[in-house]
Amino acid sequence: MTFPGKRIDLDGGDRVCLFIGAGMSAESGVPTYRGAGGIWGQYNYREVACQRAFDRQPGVVLDFHEQRRAGLLACAPHAGHAHIAALQARYPGQVSVVTQNIDGMLQRAGVAVAAELHGSIWRMRCAAHGLSDDRAGANLVTRHCALCGRWLRPDVTWFEDQVDGAVFDAAMRLIAASQWLVAVGTTASVYPAAGFLPFAREMGVRLVEINPEASDMSDLFEQVIRQPASVALPALLPLSR
Q1: Taking the CB of residue 194, how many other CB atoms lie within 10 A of it?
Q2: Rounded to a whole number, what is the distance in angstroms from the first to the last CA of the chain?
Q3: CA 54 to CA 62: how far, in whole Å?
Q4: 235 with 3: CB under 8 angstroms?
Q5: What is the DSSP letter of 138?
Q6: Are 206 and 181 in contact (CB under 8 A)?
Q7: pLDDT value at residue 146
Q8: pLDDT tens digits, residue range 66-100?
């Protein structure tokens, strides 16, 4: 497959922020949220993915999330994930990653993620005592706090939750300090995360989209690559000249 765009030369010292969406994981077989076969076409979030549901039936909500973890462990990171890890090793300090995904696929590939905008399904949180250990890569999750016995909830941003302002602020600083923002597999339809794209453009950051399908903000990008991430990332961001 011929690469259709202009390559980014990291050897010149440019900093790149990769803005990762659900399409990146879809290539590994992880279901998306709103597309064909997406999770919210099969489940009602009011029953399994909001605080009210958790308060009403915590066991049911946790069963749903354990089912999702088991499904994630049946999937493996692809060549695009591995390439990002290799880029970070080859160009330390030049390649940052901001992700909307909660699935831990990037981390399983050895990628250093600077900002998890919506948390991680592999962490659990007590309302009184905060986070438990990160269990990425192992479907072993304790349901009750060891200190107080309360139900633990997944450390993810559910529907109706407020986002973590500190994480979003950190992501904005990374984007503003970059020369390039490469959006990978994002529909650009979930706010406030989608607001990073017009923000980057206002800051003079150059925008590239990697997505087999058009997104809600494709018109913002100076370069659009209609290829899967496993193909497009190594071509757009080669490890060396």
Answers
A1: 20
A2: 19
A3: 8
A4: yes
A5: S
A6: yes
A7: 86
A8: 989 989 999 999 999 999 999 999 999 999 999 99
CA distance 145 to 240: 48
Tell me, which fold does domain 10-236 have in CATH? Rossmann fold (3.40.50)
CB 9 within 8 A of CB 95: no
5 Cβ contact partners less than 8 Å away, ≥ 6 residues apart: 208, 223, 224, 225, 236
Domain boundaries, the chain: 10-236
Helices (H), 12-77: 22-26, 45-48, 51-56, 58-73
How would residue 205 be classed by pLDDT, with cut points 50, 70 and 90? very high
The catalytically annotated residue of 78, 81, 83, 118 is 118
Is 129 marked active-site?
no
Question: In one letter, which amino acid is 107?
Answer: Q
Confidence of residue 2 (pLDDT cuts 50, 70, 90): low
Measured distance CA(49)–CA(33) in Å, rounded = 12
Instruction: Read off the pLDDT of residues 116-165 as tens digits, 9 standing for 90 and up.
Output: 999 999 999 999 998 876 565 555 567 899 899 999 999 999 999 999 99
Spacing of C-alpha 141 from chain mean position: 21
Backbone angles phi, psi at 171, to 5 degrees: -65, -40
What pTM does this model have?
Answer: 0.91
The residues that bridge with 209 in the sheet, in sequence order, are 183, 224
